[in-house]
Write a structure and sequence with these properties.
By secondary structure, this protein is α/β, with parallel strands linked by helices. Helix content is 36%, strand content 29%. It is built from eleven helices and twelve strands. Strand 10, helix 8 and strand 11 form a beta-alpha-beta unit. The model has no long low-confidence stretch (mean pLDDT 93).
């Protein structure tokens, strides 16, 4: 496996860069009114892959913050993965053509797995599946609904589909700085051959260190949001750690 990737997160609501607590749109904190400026800052700090979620799009079932995403693409040169409201092949193709490196399909993975598999077949290496779980059960529609589907069961459905990665989010920890749920994330990674990215709760350098432990070797990386915005995670120290360099 290549070096662990730390993905700084930009969550878009009403064109602004926000962080939610446990996916609750009513518990949003605005951290930057200019998402493109925030993205450029992340790139200048040394991050090499950006994670974006169109929160409004996830609820609406269609892209809502497209203009903000396009401005981010103009502002940075690093790869960008995007999720939220992408529900058909035309939407996947449009974003890839605009410069998104890979799209993340979440609700669609539950509602229309055939579409996800077709997208992964048509665009090899450029489709990721977002699995957002509450108590081990998959949540959809911007986390507003919880299904009866277990996270591992859903992941296994895409085992041979050519999916580039699975982004596993523990909703109970998201935005609360409680630390990554590595036990559940590693268990998922052990159940499939698809690379898995941890998301939800990354709070400090200790979480980054835990990603480098042998038991986490199958993980592609982790997404970091509030800890960066709050200043609890020093970008320089975190990136030096994953690169094996002195901070």
């Amino acid at each position: 496996m290549d070096a662990v990737i730390l993905f700084p997160a930009i969550d878009l609501k009403d064109g602004k860069c926000v962080r939610l607590q446990q996916g609750d749109m009513a518990r949003a904190t605005v951290f930057n009114h200019d998402p493109a400026q925030q993205a450029a800052q992340f790139e200048s700090q040394g991050f090499r892959y950006l994670h974006i979620v169109d929160l409004d799009g996830a609820f609406a079932g269609k892209p809502v913050n497209a203009h903000a995403v396009e401005r981010i693409l103009e502002a940075v040169g690093m790869p960008v993965q995007l999720g939220g409201g992408i529900r058909d092949l035309a939407g996947v193709a449009a974003w890839l053509e605009k410069g998104i490196t890979r799209v993340i399909l979440g609700t669609a993975a539950v509602r229309d797995p055939a579409f996800v598999k077709e997208a992964a077949r048509r665009f090899p290496g450029r489709v990721a599946v977002g699995i957002d779980a509450r108590d081990g059960r998959v949540a959809v529609e911007g986390w507003a609904e919880t299904s009866d589907l277990e996270a591992t069961e859903l992941a296994r459905r895409f085992e041979d589909a050519g999916v580039a990665a699975i982004i596993y989010t523990d909703i109970a920890r998201d935005g609360l700085l409680k630390g990554l749920n590595l036990d559940a994330t590693i268990a998922l990674a052990d159940a499939v051959s698809i690379p898995v990215i941890a998301s939800g709760g990354l709070a400090s350098l200790d979480d980054v260190k835990a990603l480098l432990e042998p038991r986490a070797a199958k993980l592609e990386g982790a997404i970091t949001g509030r800890a960066l915005y709050d200043g609890r995670l020093d970008p320089r120290a975190a990136l030096a750690l994953v690169a094996g360099l002195p901070a």
